[in-house]
Design a protein that fits this description.
Layout: E1 7-8, E2 14-15, E3 47-51, H1 56-67, E4 79-81, H2 124-130, E5 142-145, E6 150-153, H3 156-163, H4 186-201, H5 203-208, H6 213-236, H7 255-274, H8 289-301, H9 303-306, H10 311-321
Parallel strand pairs: 3-4
Antiparallel strand pairs: 1-2, 3-5, 5-6
Helix pairs in contact: 1-3, 1-7, 4-6, 4-7, 6-8, 7-10
Bound molecules: glutathione.
Residues 25, 28, 55, 57, 86, 90-91, 137-141, 154-157 line the site of glutathione.
Length: 344
């Protein structure tokens, strides 16, 4: 298990790109599911979710946890949030400023680790408990099994699919059987997910962490092509003038919307500036009237989206955690508002 980007500069800052200037995301290592008759059977008071509020991959899991009513049962999947600053030793439960002078005052504090794990300072400590040989990057989200003291999953795409069913026997009646990956739409969802992942979700990172002009342009172009394609898909469905939310696939909310949302809601406040994805902003009504409306329908229309979107942590995390992109770690004040109103 080795991280492809797990390199540190002499100054302690993480080097995100490989030697050819391209950012490559590592493959996740823990790929199990919560399911009956498995090492991780559905149960109350057993599983925990570790997230960073800034992280778009962890954000997917927070949204599905709410959409599925898992948050309604307090001991089903409690959430523990790391501090927003991703420091030299990765995500942390304790402010880096306490041990690193140059990081004093940075970051938005999280919740601290769960009871019984007060000795753990970094998220890495959970990875090492699960696998003492673990040598790759310690990413969020993490689905933690308290009984087995191990990680069930650190791959958000599989985790959010698993949450459709994993805890159904415990959630309130009205959430049971609800799925964001319905059988009849799977083929289309998979197709959309594939290019949205590569060109948009990961595309903003590949653009932002490129360390050569060529690598930057190689990723900038497909990113904006994909945004044009999304705009056209939503225009065809009349999203701009619709009073009701319009969805990417079929006429119901699916994981395709959830996966796209966590990138698009970060686009204007962060990716446009910090990752130099600056051909347009999503709020540019002359370019993305439909995509912009789609975003605002989800944010303003559904508590699962709005209540899990923390602009303060999002901005603090990105602008303060990547000194290669932003050496003085200044968090820009704008654009304001972070997201426009539904009819603005
Ligand atoms: N494939 C993973 C990717 C998760 C991921 O890359 N998370 C980032 C935060 S946005 C992370 O935790 N990075 C920590 C690090 O690189 O040290 C997923 O989708 O779950």
């Amino acid at each position: 298990m080795s991280g492809t980007n797990d390199q540190t500069h002499k100054d302690g800052n993480t080097k995100w790109a490989s030697s050819d200037g391209e950012f490559r995301r590592q493959t996740s290592s823990f790929r199990s599911l919560v399911q009956p008759n498995s090492p991780h059977p559905p149960a109350r008071n057993r599983y925990k979710l570790f997230v960073a509020l800034a992280c778009p991959w962890a954000h997917r899991a927070l949204i599905v946890r709410k959409l599925k009513g898992i948050d309604k049962v307090s001991d089903l999947l409690p959430v523990y949030v790391v501090d927003s600053l991703l420091g030299p030793e990765g995500w942390s439960w304790k402010p880096y400023g306490e041990t690193h002078d140059e990081l004093k005052g940075l970051g938005v504090p999280g919740t601290g680790p769960p009871p019984g794990h007060e000795d753990k300072v970094r998220i890495k400590d959970f990875y090492l408990q699960a696998d003492p040989q673990y040598g790759a990057r310690s990413t969020v989200p993490v689905l933690w099994d308290e009984e087995k003291k191990t990680i069930v999953s650190n791959e958000s795409s599989e985790l959010i699919r698993n949450l459709n069913e994993a805890f159904d026997e415990f959630v309130p009646e009205e959430y049971r059987g609800k799925t964001y990956y319905p059988q009849e739409l799977r083929k289309e969802i998979d197709e959309v997910n594939e290019w949205v992942y590569s060109d948009v979700n990961n595309g903003v990172y590949k653009t932002g962490f490129a360390t050569t002009q060529q690598a930057y342009e190689n990723n900038f172009v497909p990113l904006f092509k994909a945004l044009d394609k999304l705009e056209a898909m939503l225009a065809k469905k009349g999203c701009k003038d619709s009073k009701k939310p319009v969805y990417l696939v079929g006429d119901q909310m699916t994981e395709a919307d959830i996966r796209l949302y966590t990138t698009i809601v970060r686009f204007d406040p962060v990716y446009h500036t910090h990752f130099k994805c600056n051909k347009h902003q999503i709020r540019d009504e002359a370019v993305y009237p439909n995509l912009h409306k789609w975003l605002r329908h989800l944010y303003w229309g559904d508590e699962a989206f709005k209540s899990t979107t923390d602009f303060e942590s999002i901005k603090a995390h990105y602008y303060q955690s990547h000194p290669g992109n932003n050496p003085h770690r200044i968090v820009p004040s704008g654009p304001l508002p972070h997201i426009r109103g539904l009819d603005e």
